Amino acid sequence: MFGLFKKEKSDVFTAPVTGQLMPLDTLNDGVFSEKMMGEGYAIAPEEQAVYAPIAGTISSVFPTKHAIGITSDAGLEVLVHMGLDTVEMNGTPFETKVAAGDQVKAGDLLSTVDVAAIQASDRDAAIVVIFTNMDKVKDFSPIKAGPVTHGDAVTTLTYAG
């Protein structure tokens, strides 16, 4: 009645990898730390497997395998970016397990990453999750830095409208 009891739509985002959770502004990369692509969070990985942080459809797998796009059922575009400046590695440290059009659930394996190879190339191996169409986002809970295990809840995002 008049929308007074209309429940807001929200999604819980999980850790795509085990490691140290950190807010974007702590990254040594202006595009992410200044949130030019959107809001989100990052994890310094302690393992090689990278999992879907939310359910949806794989919208893109970059040719260099360093990033995977997921579109949630609510239409939120989510970018899972593996490592900083890793596009220049031409896909060598990544083994993608999904393709565009695949349906995934939170926790499904997206990719494996050779973290040691990224670090040996003097790059940051951070796994970054970005909400790229922030116009769909009303709010999300703060990111609390600290250890996480893949699958742990990281933030709850509430959709606009």
UniProtKB/TrEMBL annotation:
Keywords: Kinase, Phosphotransferase system, Sugar transport, Transferase, Transport
Subcellular location: Cell membrane; Cytoplasm
Matching InterPro entries: Dup_hybrid_motif, PTS_EIIA_1_perm, PTS_EIIA_component
Membrane-related topology note: Multi-pass membrane protein
MF term (GO), any: kinase activity
GO terms of biological process kind: phosphoenolpyruvate-dependent sugar phosphotransferase system
GO cellular component: cytoplasm; plasma membrane
PROSITE patterns (alphabetical): PTS_EIIA_TYPE_1, PTS_EIIA_TYPE_1_HIS
Occurrences of domain PTS EIIA type-1 (ranges): 29-133
Pfam families (UniProt xref): PTS_EIIA_1
Name under which the protein is recorded: PTS system IIA component, Glc family
Biological classification of the source: Bacteria, Bacillati, Bacillota, Bacilli, Lactobacillales
